[in-house]
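ok trying again, last paste got cut off:
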Amino acid sequence: MKQKINLSLAFIALIAVIATAVGLTFVYYGLLRERIRSDLASSAEVLSDTGLLQELYLSSEEEGTTNTDRLERLRDMSARITWIDQDGSVLFDNDTNADRLENHLDRPEVRAALETGSGESVRNSDTMHMDTLYYALKLDNGTILRLSTQARTLTSVLLTAMPIIIVIIAAILAVCILLGHFLTASILHPIEMMTEHLEDPIATSEYKELKPFADKIRNQHENILAAAKSRQDFTANVTHELKTPLTAISGYAELIENHMVEKEQEEHVARQIRCNADRLLSLINDILALSELDHGELPLQFVPVDLQETAAECCANLEVAAAEKHIRLIQEGDSVTLMADRNRLAELITNLVQNAIRYNNENGTVRITTGSLDGHAFLRVADNGIGIPKDQQDRIFERFYRVDKSRSRESGGTGLGLAIVKHIAELHHADISLDSTPGKGTVITVSF
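nice, full thing came through this time. structure:
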């Protein structure tokens, strides 16, 4: 990154120097050309005002010859002076013998002067790398006074200045590389410091623009750590939960293997093995379901589902479990249709009702209500069981968390039922609310 910043600064400096040099050359060359043109025009006006050429032209018409002696003083001027008759013939030239010069009537500056009173043009010599600037002025007597001078071409000026430009570019690049090194270090230092103290929520960057980025990275980092801890706790809990029924099954099997079970105890041992095997199977199924919900491996098929009808089916399936504890299931409410995955919705209702049965008292009641409130379907499961202490209500949806651990294991609970309910509710964009009082019961409402 530092190297890219340094190269970018050097490249910008290079472009800036070249653009400045070329731009200034164009500007100053244009100013120079304009100054030369202005000087030629001024000189032509001065010569015209002296009346020398007009006087000589009149005398030549009377005498038939041109008095060239009086024009000799013009040969010392820096600009080339050409005096042209109306027919284009050259009357005088301070640089060349006029008799040797061709007719100038076709010259653009001469034609313009004859038509408008003045004219100018520029002709380039590629071999000499010079431009010749011409300015022609029509005199009162109809003759043309033309002044010209040479100036170097723009290309020539650029080529001449190129060594100086190269030296300047090299010097500026060296300075830019040196300054870029320190500038890059100063720019990246706060970022490096922020990276080193990323876990410190108090540490802030000098660049306020980086605060949202730092906060997001910090949150992601905290989430990753939390997820890692959650997986670690989940693994430990799974190991512990699986170990308990497996140990019981292994112990009872060892008793049978060593013929240590009396005839009258065989039924009890067999029942314990079956109960622990059922609990083990239930635990494995819940773990698999939770894993699939976590990773989105179960494809959801959202179709119109009657919530009351689904709740009635779930209650019918749990009648036997409720009857074993002498618990009365009451299913009531209105028919309401919502878009949901039928199997996942049934799993959610089943887990809620099972929990209400499991943590209820003998001869208790579980009331399942469905309906619509403010245009949203809801499911409410209420029991008059043991209830949940206030300080534990925020944790009941955690995996393997139990309010009454001994009672949950005796009733076959895995501690994953409400965690599954929470996942399914999130997949259906539903909210879960809890109202519970120890000794009086619990009400869980799912609003879709």
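cool. The chain has a mean pLDDT of 80. Residues 198-298 form a domain with the Helix Hairpins fold (CATH 1.10.287.130).
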